[in-house]
Amino acid sequence: MLASTADGAFAGKADDTLHVAFTKELENVDSYFNSAREGVVLMRAVWDGLIYRDPVTNEYKGNLATSWTWVDDKTLEFKLREGVTFHNGEPFNADDVVYTVDFVSQESNGVKTQRNVNWMKSAEKIDDYTVRIHLKDKFPAAIEFLAGPVAIYPNEYYAEVGPSGMGLKPVGTGPYKVTEVVPGQHFVLEKNEAYFDGPKGQPTIGKIDIRTIPDVNTQMAELFSGSLDFIWQVPADLAERLATMEQFTVANEIHHACRLSCNGCGRPLRRRQSLHQAEGAPGGEPRNRPRHPRECSPQGQQPGHLDAVLPEPVRLRSGRDAV
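Predicted structure:
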């Protein structure tokens, strides 16, 4: 990872904006219809799951659910958090969980990474704030997956707009709401001032401006000029040279494929100034954890690349998630 520490590159500057570059085009922001690391970054910022895994302690905590119990080997019952609203004002309740689970678990609906969802059979509403998820078979990793790639969508909105509409105008409950989408080119996220008091904590950066810049030389030029604060997947030889310059912070995370992007693949990212990962990436490596093709394994990393380049003063992680 690499970031400028020049005064003009701080996320805490006057406009309270973090400027980020993605190398890969992300055509659909809908988290169930892309498998890119960049998509998982947005998923964790924009949406929430029922459960959250603390990135420091690896403890499972209630997120959109406040508690859960195993009814039997193939049934999980959840008590849901009350008073949560989606970014469009739609109230969160059991109907959203049932709709999301029933939709994504049906293979015919075309979810991109089937193994993240195909262990679920269906969901059942018990009352407005109690729901059961029925598994197809015994699945010890169910809690881990529910703390990872299974995000909960607003049932009424998603039924109306579908994956294409969600990709153009994402709506979640997460700490950041999407205010602008130019598919494959530009995404703007703004702090959700109404975010509930959950385990992720409150977002600390007002705005995150993400542009797709495929050429690393262009990214570097903008990093030097101060128009970018954060880049990642930097060629190792270039990162080594930049590490000798005081204005940059370089973090080598080759074996930690997605600390900044999905639900964790190894040790937490460490440096003097912590990152707010609105997506709350866990930092451990449990067995059977959910994976994203080419994104969450050492084999998925491009040889000779570092993960990212970032500014020390940036805070991308909410207070409770700081590492």
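Summary: The chain is about 20% helix and 20% strand.
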